[in-house]
Here is the input.
Amino acid sequence: MGLSSNPKNPTHQPSISRHGGLRTMPFIMGNRGIAENEVFERMASIGVLPNMILYLMREYNMEAANGANLLFIWSALTNGLAIYGAFLSDAYFGRFRVIALGSFSSLIGIILLWSTTTIPGMKPPPCEQFQDDCNPATPSQLAVLFSSFGLISIGAGCIRPCSMASGANQLDKETPDSERIFERFFNWYYASTAMSVVIALTTMVYIQDHLGWNFGFGILAILMFFSAFMFLFGSTLYVKVKPSSSLFTGFVQVPLVAFKNRHLNPPPADSNEYYHHSDDKKLAPTNKLRSFYYVPRWLNRACMIRGPATELSSDGTAPNLWSICSVEQVESLKTLLRVIPIWSTGIMILVTVGQSSFSTLQATTMDRYLTPNFEILAASFTVATVVVLMIWIPIYDVVLIPFLARYSGQP
Here is the structure.
């Protein structure tokens, strides 16, 4: 996220001598684990989520269905707020400030959650299992719990969409070995993310089960603090991309402007009647979008110049982007449309993955002993998904893809 409509804006050029580079990666990567998706953030949020259904049932006297619904809504909110975090980063505050805000929000949220385990009166009195007259949590106790969930979600929504892009901004794109450096960065990024999930689902869950909730949540708060401190400690080394315009704004502008121009016929592709920036690589929009042939032709109307005297200023720029869009904005929306079919294939699997509370509850009723002295933790069952994924990816990349390429004749 965070791309400007003018890709060669000077504010987007990394400084090679004093800022950026691989030396900033420990600070960036360290921050990613705190909200749920990146190293410490994943340890904190993912470390909280699998066991949280047990915490709600045992400490807040919630029914299993109510607790599972609450956690499902919390997970959905956490994922949805990433859209708003990306928008704030691109259009208003920049990635550094949004990540810093997310780190602070996640830290406060986890400290607040930890306080429910240590401060008397923050949760209902203990209740024996299968007892019918348990005291439910009071509104004030639920307010504290929900506030902690909300702050953690805000932190995740700020960190997730910005962390990877912020790390990529630190790398110099003009060096001869830039492709190898970017490949190295993304490999380590995803490797560290996967390892943080494994640690969260094993070590963090073990601590919560055997050493208590207060100790387990306290460790997560310490990791959160360490992540925020490391990120801010390296702030003087970062390339800080200034906010300009958001891709999301362009995604709204393009169809609206195209609808305004729906009665106009698009000029030929080699025409100079399309609005573009002087440093744009594409001077005219494309017409092909695989099976959706008429969709891109209709969107091309958004960058048509109807009247240069009224739509463009003296320097050739468009002062009102709600009246005319650039070729780059139109092509960015087409790129999004191309990946929607691929994105949609993950909907059903994510629906099942989001039901982690039920797998934890089911596992609590099972005999989980592999040996007389080794028992798999109920909340650690989902780690099998991550392990299988880590095994499947190299098989897919090294074995399956070359085989299918030879069989189909397509690279």
Remarks:
- The longest strand covers residues 369-371.
- Residues 178-211 form the longest helix (34 residues).
- The chain has 14 helices and two strands.
